[in-house]
TrEMBL record:
Family per similarity comment: Belongs to the TonB-dependent receptor family.
Membrane topology of the entry: Multi-pass membrane protein
PROSITE patterns to which the protein is assigned, alphabetical: TONB_DEPENDENT_REC_3
Protein name: TonB-dependent receptor-like beta-barrel domain-containing protein
Protein's GO biological process: siderophore transmembrane transport
Entries under InterPro entries matching the protein: Beta-barrel_TonB, Beta-barrel_TonB_sf, TonB-dep_rcpt-like
Organism classification: Bacteria, Pseudomonadati, Pseudomonadota, Betaproteobacteria, Neisseriales
Keywords for this protein: Cell outer membrane, Membrane, TonB box, Transmembrane, Transmembrane beta strand, Transport
Amino acid sequence: MIKETKNLAADSDENWPSPKHLRAHAWSPMLALSYNLTQNGRLHLRWAQAVRFPTIYEATTTNSSWADAYSQEFDLKPERSTNWEIGYTYNFAPRFKRLRHGDIRLTYYNSVIKNAIELSSERNLQQYDKRLTSGIELQSRFDSGKWFASLAANYRLKQQTCDKATVFNYDLYINRIPVCVDGGFGATRFHQSRQPKYSINLDIGTRRFNEKLELGLRGTYHSKAENKQQDKLAKSGLARIYEATGRPYHWRSALVLDVYGRYNFGKNLSMNFSVSNLTNRYYLDPMSNVPIPAPGRAVTVGFTGKF
């Protein structure tokens, strides 16, 4: 018996349909308030929403697979983030006569991204219910002219990805896996780019020769990125969620030192020089989502002129 075969060439329009035109719009409101508690102390509050529509790549590869080169269906929703922060700023420069600048700022921040778009370990697009981020940030500085310094620290309280469907698929009957997991689900960008628990940045410098010469030392410290929730789930026999989605990277702590300098020959000519990664430390950059070592010791010299 001979079956009739379909002429693929004749039905090219059906096999390769033209993409649909997509248009959308959304509001991104923002509100900022500040209140002077004292002459040198200020309380601030900021609330903002933002919308990110899927890119062309995300929109055209939503339902693609090895069997279907393109699917004209569009299931992705726009990402909508809600960010708010509250903080206190204090200017202590008036208390010290020799200080040009001196202030400290403490801020609590919170971010929720709904319909978060992510790539799975198989490079397939997925959309999770939401992504949560919160933490405490400290910023301070002082500058007396001859000496100056700044200190910044970030303590991350929460870095989680939440999705009911994903956790339900990995524990259908007992539902022992929490809806929100630290970082993300295995070998995804959210989990592999999970930032350290805390980071500290310190700059110290001096100005000499009527402030023509400026020398400085910069130190950056990142704590190790560990996932206690993942270890707890593994001990409870629930490691399958990570075995199936890919084990994420575990960053070690790192301390990186840089030195820099600047000399002004006049109003129109200056020289800059720096030595980054002074100790030639071998480490993986915890702010990267790929396991590539950061650059080693590097010396840079440059001149700047105005004409």
